[in-house]
Amino acid sequence: MIQKKIEELKKSLKEQTLRVEQMMDICAECYQSGDCQSLEQVAILEKKVNEADLQLEKTALYILALRTPHAKTLREVLMIRKVNTDLERIADLCDNNKVIIGKLAESSGKDILRNEILQMLDKAKSMFLDSLKSFFVEDSDLAKEVCRQDDVVDNLKDEVLRKLIRDKVGIEEALLINNFSKNIERIADLTTNIAEGSIFIDEGKEVRHWFK
After folding, report:
1. How far does CA 59 lie from the centroid of its chain?
2. Rounded CA gap, 18 and 46, in Å?
3. Nearest CA to 116 among 35, 24, 185, 33?
4. How are the residues of the chain apportioned to helix, strand and coil, as percentages rounded to the nearest 5?
5. Contact predicate 46/95, CB 8 Å
6. E-assigned strand segments in 62-196
7. Hey, is 36 helix, strand or coil?
8. Fewer Cβ close by (within 10 Å): the C or N end of the chain?
9. Which of 132, 128, 147, 7 minimizes the C-alpha distance to 77?
10. Calpha distance 19→196 (Å, rounded)
11. How far apart (Å, rounded) are the C-alpha atoms in residues 136 and 180?
12. What DSSP designation does 212 have?
């Protein structure tokens, strides 16, 4: 019975993953093309993510309260809850980026540091996919590689800030671009959290802060 409930949790989490991935893709495509017509889909998906978040949490608490799982099963349920929370936070960041992308498309700053932002979006998406893959197939080696990649996004974010200052970009455009890069960096941090959870499930080791 408990394994059936856990499989239901995993199925719900995979569906949540697809929603968040779609939000990331829409944001990246709209930023790259400058066509923001699809951005409203991000808001729609964000509401679905919030609804699914509450339902998944309810199921997880039911398992913890009434089925008293042990050892690896307990770690699995706890980390499913944690990943669900991280996914909901990534969805919030995508919703924030939706607003920024819309403003950038209408401003003179849409092409400022474009290559750096695209690199950040691409790396964060790659980390996201690998972190979820490592979680679902319990591949701690892949998860450790995701954790190591977090520094790449951090360095790109710092580079964006340095170039904004160096090039004396206007305040309004600089704030938009800096906030955009910070949101992407935060998404990468959250995907690293998911990867750390994969290691916890697979090896039973708490590895937070190991890769910092």
Report:
1. 22
2. 12
3. 185
4. 85, 0, 15
5. yes
6. none
7. coil
8. N
9. 7
10. 22
11. 29
12. -
Yes or no: say if 47 and 91 are a contact pair by the CB < 8 Å rule. no
Q: At what angle do helices 114-137 and 171-203 cross, to 10 degrees?
A: 20
List the structure tokens of 37: 């017509």
* Nearest-angstrom CA–CA distance, 69 and 80: 13
Cα gap 105→162, rounded to integer Å: 22
Residue 171 and residue 185: Cα distance in Å, rounded? 21
Angle at 50 between CA 46 and CA 53, to 5 degrees: 135
Helices (H) and strands (E) in the chain, counts: 6, 0
Read off the amino acid at residue 43.
A
Instruction: Please give the C-alpha separations between residue 179 and each of 66, 104, 117, 171, 186, in angstroms, as whole numbers.
Output: 43, 11, 11, 12, 10
Q: Of 27-36, 56-65, 161-170, which gets the smallest average pLDDT?
A: 56-65
> Cα(70)–Cα(51) distance, rounded to whole angstroms?
28
* Structure confidence by residue, pLDDT tens digits, 186-204: 999 999 999 998 888 766 6
Mean pLDDT across the stretch 16-32?
97
Helix or strand or coil: residue 71?
A: helix
User: What gap in Å lies between CA 111 and CA 101, rounded to an integer?
Assistant: 11
Give the pTM. 0.91
Q: Tell me which residue of 12, 25, 96 sits closest to 51, measured CA to CA.
A: 12
